Amino acid sequence: MGTSLDSRSAQATEVIERLHDAYPDTTISLTFSNRLELLVAVVLSAQCTDERVNETTPELFETYQTPEDYAAADEEQLAEDIYGITFHNNKAGYLKGIGEILVEEHDGEVPDTMDALTALPGVGRKTANVVLQHGHDVVEGIVVDTHVQRLTRRLGLTEEERPDAIEDDLMEIIPEDEWQAFTHLMISHGRAVCTARNPDCGDCALEDVCPSSKLDSDVDLASGEAWE
């Protein structure tokens, strides 16, 4: 039977401990070798799978190696170079704009503050958090992607719907030294077991503490709708 623990903090602690056991080596799945490549990869990954991004970036990173390369790029050619990435035309514009700002305002370096990163085209708080954590070893928040949104609501860790509100909720109950790992644990579990449409509750390490378990709950708390 899926039943949440007495408090959200206790629930979070139990979830984290179990998922660390289940996914001991989980980490970011995007492939990159420097901060610029990380920034570009994360921008491309918005509403696109990491697998598709990783298929696209090797050739892209050979062609565009510096912010100056992106700044000087022909936008139509850049869009063609990332064809297959969701919203490739828009993202080509973002990458060119990012290159221009990095050159003009940051001496060609990827900035290390939330404000400076979110001022870049196509960069929101989620993207900035990833770049800070994995590019600068700065952890000042929790990356809330679609997996984190779905699983934290299913598990009763939050009732919020907007990513920024979910992040605020989670930062209150998750130890700061787990903020970075938490996202990767959610992503790993979301991909392997707790999928969007047909979660495998019968083979879930969290089933007994999950109030959304299909084995005894009629409602998916992630969507608020009845299980199909």
Automatic annotation (TrEMBL):
Q: Which HAMAP family match?
A: Nth
Which positions does UniProt annotate for [4Fe-4S] cluster binding?
A: 194, 201, 204, 210
Name of the protein described by the UniProt record: Endonuclease III
Q: Which UniProt keywords apply?
A: 4Fe-4S, DNA damage, DNA repair, DNA-binding, Endonuclease, Glycosidase, Hydrolase, Iron, Iron-sulfur, Lyase, Metal-binding, Nuclease
Tell me its cofactors. [4Fe-4S] cluster
Keyword Lyase attached:
yes
Which E.C. number(s) belong to this protein? Answer: 4.2.99.18
Q: Could you say which protein family the record assigns here?
A: Belongs to the Nth/MutY family.
